[in-house]
Amino acid sequence: MANRSDFTMGSFALRYLFALLLVFVTYNPSGMSWVHWLNADAAMVYKVGLGVVLLIGFIIYLRATWNSLGLLGMILALGFFAVIIWLLMEWGVLNLSNTSVLVWVVEFVFSGILAVGMSWSHIRRKMSGQYDTDEIEG
What we know:
This protein is mainly alpha-helical. It contains 4 helices and no strands. It has one domain (14-126). It has helices at residues 9-26, 34-37, 44-90, 99-128. Helix 3 (44-90) crosses helix 4 (99-128).
């Protein structure tokens, strides 16, 4: 019987999906995002409310990513995704001369780093058997 705390590819995919949603709802080049909505004719209370919800999401993801990966891990994650982008450019799959494409790629990479940060403790535990715990200062 599977333990409820088991980490699967589905668990990572869900974290990545929520990171994509957070990043793309905040801003994307399509013109349909919170940043674009700020200039629209709508009640400010909705704009501020959604902004607070997005900020809460970013704080949760960024704190978890920083606590899991640290500076070196974040640099390595960025390097990993940069190499993937480079490889796609070498293969001719990706052309970054279009600014819109560049923004989309950066947002996918940022979402990927956030998802890895949210998942890293689980991945590390699966690979090494070691648990991560937060230090509680008294």
